[in-house]
Specification:
Layout: H1 21-28, E1 32-36, E2 39-42, H2 44-63, E3 67-68, E4 74-76, H3 77-83, H4 85-88, E5 94-97, E6 103-106, H5 111-121, E7 130-139, E8 154-164, H6 167-187, E9 192-196, E10 206-213, E11 219-224, H7 242-253, E12 257-259, H8 265-268, E13 276-291, H9 295-298, E14 301-303, E15 309-311, E16 313-320, H10 321-331, E17 333-334, E18 337-338, E19 349-353, H11 359-374, E20 379-382, H12 388-398, E21 402-406, H13 408-412, E22 416-420, E23 426-429, H14 431-443
Helix pairs in contact: 1-10, 2-6, 2-10, 6-7, 11-14
The structure holds one RNA strand of 77 nucleotides.
RNA sequence: CGGAGUGUAGCGCAGUCUGGUAGCGCACCUGCUUCGGGAGCAGGGGGUCGGAGGUUCGAAUCCUCUCACUCCGACCA
């Protein structure tokens, strides 16, 4: 993509309404534009990141054996009257009436709808286990939206629902989700810690929240700091192996890690003092096992192997996709701007032509652009007629992890410069070497 | 919803107290010079002063109503 033809409305000054760093940087980098309180347009650069995150979530869900689908944003009120939540959910639910005076709502979540779909089409234990999910816009009419996309009213969420014949199978689904979530966050360059949580209005006995440590987080967290060092890495995981999956969960949930709601001061005392940490975190996902809470009132039953009609065991699981964009920035930025992890960057590399219009630099840039494209890597090429400082500042602000700088001085020696946004380290090399290096960095992603 | 604020050009702001017909910086357009970390000079364009009503010869400014947004609190992916 050539910057001269792109739409990247960066701001030099901080918009006054933005209080936290991710909100400021998203506005300055031209990623979003606020349309109403807690409601945003996703401009091209922001949309690219959102799509990258969505893609990773999809890939990891499918890898775990979960099945993608798509449910509507608007839902009939009757479905919610059936579960009893139409009245319980309160003011946070946006209620709408259509021209025929039918009551609708903009879905804040989809337990009722997925249960309706399930009961209409599934009747036998032989069809289980089943886990369906979708990534769709939600609306929760927050009393006070704030922090940009971190607490918007409209937000993009992955929500999944598992249906199993008994508690044991359903808890395996719970564990499977925990592992798939851990892998999802790791691919985004995040350390998200599963913490025992309180259940809230969704309900359920077992529930963990996934928190990214950040000073600006809304939740207070208490943890053994050794949890931060745990990594799944590239280990192979058989999602059908109950014992193996449970083993991974145990590995990640044994060390003390709780939010303020479930914090146990006495238990916390048993953590060695040197590792005892209190901080703040951003919630980026949550998983629940809620037994037959929805299946019973809504009649989601199957016939078991003895011919008996039994309610299915369910769980639900969410990842805040749009919130993750903000959370990643909170976790990865510096005073000059965003620093995207390679897994979610809007463009893998930026290309800066220091002397636009110069035959040699123009040709070298075009060649690099083409060579990267041949590897399936789309470069953001700053081909504007701007001075070097302005181009560097823009690249630093939007946070592409790698930058190739092409100037007449280096080019005379056959060299370009490859710079890491994260470390600032710059290295001179031939264009071919730079392309190969970028190719190698992204080969595994 | 309780408390505190703010709405003036795309962004950041001054002007409001004390009414006289809208200004600054950045961004944008043109030209020249400049060119490895947000250049300089010259010229230029862009405004329902959130909206409605009122007072007045005259309203960004005073009055009334209203809308929107932000911050603190209770609530939350």
């Amino acid at each position: 993509m050539r910057l001269s033809r792109y739409f990247l409305p960066v701001l030099r000054e901080n918009p006054s309404e933005a209080q936290i760093v991710s909100h400021r940087l998203m506005l300055r980098a031209g990623m979003i534009r606020q349309q109403a309180a807690g409601i945003y347009s996703w401009l091209p650069l922001g949309y690219r990141v959102l799509r990258r995150i969505e893609e990773i979530v999809h890939q990891e869900q499918v890898r775990a054996g979960h099945i993608p689908m798509l449910m509507p944003t608007l839902q009939p009120a009757d479905l919610w009257r059936e579960s009893g939540r139409y009245d319980d959910y309160g003011e946070e639910m946006l209620r709408i009436r259509d021209r025929q005076k039918r009551d609708l709502l903009y879905g804040p979540t989809n337990e009722e709808m997925i249960t309706d779909i399930f009961r209409a089409h599934v009747g036998s234990y032989r069809d289980l286990p089943l886990t369906l999910y979708h990534i769709q816009w939600k609306f929760r009419d927050e009393i006070r939206p704030r922090f940009g996309v971190m607490r918007g009213r409209e937000f993009l969420m992955k929500d999944g629902y598992n249906f199993d014949i008994d508690k044991e199978a359903s808890l395996h689904a719970y564990n499977r989700h925990m592992v798939s979530y851990l892998r999802t966050y790791e691919r985004m360059g995040l350390t998200a810690i599963p913490m025992r949580a309180a259940s809230g209005p969704i309900g359920g006995d077992n529930t963990h929240e996934f928190l990214v440590l950040a000073a600006t987080g809304e939740s207070e967290v208490y943890y053994d700091d050794r949890v931060q060092d745990l990594r799944l890495g590239s280990r192979a995981i058989d999602y059908d192996d109950r014992a193996a999956v449970a083993g991974v969960c145990e590995e990640f949930t044994t060390l003390y890690a709780r939010t303020g709601e479930t914090h146990d001061a006495g238990l916390f005392e048993t953590v060695p003092e040197a590792h005892r940490k209190v901080g703040r975190g951003i919630e980026v996902g949550q998983i629940f096992y809620f037994s037959t809470k929805y299946s019973e009132p809504m009649g989601a039953v199957v016939v078991n192997d003895k011919g008996e009609r039994v309610p299915v065991h369910m769980g639900s699981h969410g990842i805040g996709v749009s919130r993750l964009v903000g959370a990643i920035i909170e976790a990865s930025h510096d005073e000059r701007g965003i620093i995207w992890p390679e897994g979610v960057t809007p463009f893998p590399v930026g290309l800066v032509n220091l002397k636009q219009g110069d035959g040699a630099t123009d040709a070298a840039c075009a060649a690099i652009e083409g060579a990267l494209a041949a590897k399936g890597l789309e470069v953001l090429y700053d081909d504007r007629d701007e001075r070097a400082g302005a181009k560097f500042a823009t690249m630093d602000l939007i946070g592409l992890p790698w930058r190739i700088t092409v100037g007449p001085r280096g080019l005379a020696a056959g060299k370009v410069e490859l710079t890491s946004r994260r470390t600032g380290a710059a290295e001179e090399m031939t264009p071919e070497e730079a392309v190969a290096r970028i190719g190698a960095i992204y080969a595994g992603l």
